[in-house]
């Protein structure tokens, strides 16, 4: 997921650009959710960032919404679905999610490493320090993961993250690139762009004029490629079997 930038104005008229990060907190205890939210509000000021934190008391509510998050904090001890089972389901949808487990004790930490989380937060008197260390770790990873391309926008040029691209479509002599922040144009051949995106691993050319980011594909059926935002694209007959194979391989790479 590409970062979204917010403009913040100060009394002196100086403008500061803030990076926005979406955070999910999944815990059956509302007090814990509110405590995590409070800590992220402190990190807003301390790190000069903007964290939007959404809490879920029920893990199923999170799974149904299918929103994109930069951080996912999961309580291990939940009655309806424990944190490990939830992590399996999340990784099955998107193997690159940044999951951080939470617990009130050390009992589950060793077992938790089997799921390769990005960290653990103990819900005790050291929560604030522990949370900050884990957040900083993920921020460093996100910065390294972000690879950008420069595209033509209405007001000039715009630099966007490859991860924010939903799909690309040939449109005359240019290619329209549909992203989480808008639609942009790039003057390049379909062959060149396809080769460029293939190096990143998660893109697939489904026909002569369209390339899709597999991270945003919800399902494929009857040559239809259905994205998570509801967009429906059509794969060519020639590409269909290979697409099915690539998509199955992509979805099967679940991290444990």
From TrEMBL:
<dbReference type="InterPro" id="IPR011006">
    <property type="entry name" value="CheY-like_superfamily"/>
</dbReference>
<keyword id="KW-0597">Phosphoprotein</keyword>
<feature type="domain" description="Response regulatory">
    <location>
        <begin position="22"/>
        <end position="138"/>
    </location>
</feature>
<dbReference type="InterPro" id="IPR001789">
    <property type="entry name" value="Sig_transdc_resp-reg_receiver"/>
</dbReference>
<feature type="domain" description="HTH LytTR-type">
    <location>
        <begin position="159"/>
        <end position="249"/>
    </location>
</feature>
<dbReference type="GO" id="GO:0000156">
    <property type="term" value="F:phosphorelay response regulator activity"/>
</dbReference>
<dbReference type="InterPro" id="IPR007492">
    <property type="entry name" value="LytTR_DNA-bd_dom"/>
</dbReference>
<protein>
    <recommendedName>
        <fullName>Response regulatory domain-containing protein</fullName>
    </recommendedName>
</protein>
<dbReference type="InterPro" id="IPR046947">
    <property type="entry name" value="LytR-like"/>
</dbReference>
<dbReference type="Pfam" id="PF04397">
    <property type="entry name" value="LytTR"/>
</dbReference>
<dbReference type="Pfam" id="PF00072">
    <property type="entry name" value="Response_reg"/>
</dbReference>
<feature type="modified residue" description="4-aspartylphosphate">
    <location>
        <position position="75"/>
    </location>
</feature>
<dbReference type="GO" id="GO:0003677">
    <property type="term" value="F:DNA binding"/>
</dbReference>
